[in-house]
Amino acid sequence: MVRAEPTHSTAGDRPLRRPRTLIVGLSIVVLTVAILQTAVVPVLSTIADQLDASTVGVSWAVTANLLAAAAATPLIGRLADLHSKKRVLLWVLAIVLVGSVLAATTSSLALLILGRVLQAASFALYPIGVAILREELTEDRMVSAMSVLSATLGFGGGTGLVVVGLLMNHGANYHRVFWLTTGFTVVVIAIVVLVVPARPRSTTGSIDWLGAAGLGAGLSAVLLAITQGSTWGWTSPRTVACAAFGIAVTVGWWFWEQRAKQPLVSTKMLRRRPILLTNVATVFVGMGLYFAFLGLTQFVQIPHEAAGYGFGATVLEASVIYLLPGAITGFLVALVSGRFIDRYGAQPVLVVAAAAGITGFLFIALAHSAPWQVIAASILANAYISLGDGALPALIVSEVDAGETGVATGMNAIARTIGSSIAAALVAVLLGRTAADAAVPMESSFIAIFIGGAVTAALAMVLIALSRVRARPIDTAEARYESRAMNHEWG
Questions:
Q1: Cys bridge to 419: 90, 241, 262, 287, which one at CB 3.0-4.6 A?
Q2: Beta bridge partners of 441
Q3: Radius of gyration of the chain (CA)
Q4: Residue 103: what pLDDT?
Q5: pLDDT band at 16 (very low <50, low <70, confident <90, very high)
Q6: DSSP structure class, residue 272
Q7: What DSSP line would sit under 229-298, residue for residue?
Q8: What is the pTM of this model?
Q9: Contact between residue 263 and residue 446 where contact means Cβ atoms under 8 Å apart
């Protein structure tokens, strides 16, 4: 592999003077990802009613978003590694803004889905944010800053649900949700313009466009099979064909990347034991996110008189009473998790986080007759997800060179997306099982979902415990500046 070499410009090597402002600003930028990902889920049935569309057709507002994210995120991460990160960030936000405006103004399902495809560019905001932090911050701030960004993802999902619940009271039009994302994106663009430093590109190299197309096609086909399998049928020709095509293209992409002079993704990087196991563990953490989010949200909305379980909560009640305490806890835990990661390392923190997840999911599987039990489980599950999302990228960043940060964290973000998609498909299948005398899911389906969360948390714990992370400092702005200063002094 030909690595992207650092340029000789020193404009971006000197440590940033006001890092806290940058961290807060990028956290708000990353909040865009969470809001766009979760805000549309509670209003899918409303969209179907107001557009007179089928539930299957409207589900493509979620499916197309995930497929586009899988195809675009690694490529955008590579662009951020090779060009000015601020410029790439603004281009991504401009695409998201166009998608939000389109979704907010159209009454066509096809154009709404197109708007969601454009909004999928937001998935790249997190890896770009991490790459900017690595370029601008000193080593002692890097892990804590990444933890704050990761915490925002979990907290933002809960916040988005609450805001959507408020907006959609009394049968409001679904366009309100997309006007919300439009206004928020405008604010985020202003923050990037004012807060993010304009640095010249820090590496040189080229983009493997064929590799990008192959990776996008392969991942999209596999995700399509996963997300539509419950609708098409898991053994239907379409599902089997999509899965087979995706696997074949991904295998071909792997061999192509091994022979490319400047590959999109270094296969040697992906084969490193810590990176491989960390990405697989991220799939399981991503599954835990959706087991908790979808499972708890649906469970508390089931009317007790009809099913013998559940609490008959509205979307707003489910968000404010049952989910928001967990989201806030996850945010607060992640704010301090960086200190623990700095002191004890990411691996021990991840093991503790997984233990919290196992406890929370098993607790709700066994005891779910009182609201406090659901809230307690939500708190433990959110602590697990928030700590995991904070520590997993820290492991990835410590294992790659500075010029690979964007694409490496982009691949890690895709691993989380794949996990979430698998969990969403499993939840759809399980909740489709209804009792003969009722139109609501069986209680055993929810128990299976929560046990699935415990199992995936245990698998993540095992993988992280087995990984062997190199004890090396993260290459940051301060390290590069001091290295060049020393070379200049002795040169």
A1: 287
A2: 434
A3: 22
A4: 94
A5: low
A6: S
A7: HHHH-TTSHHHHHHHHHHHHHHHHHHHHHHH-SS-SS-HHHHHSHHHHHHHHHHHHHHHHHHHHHHHHHH
A8: 0.80
A9: no
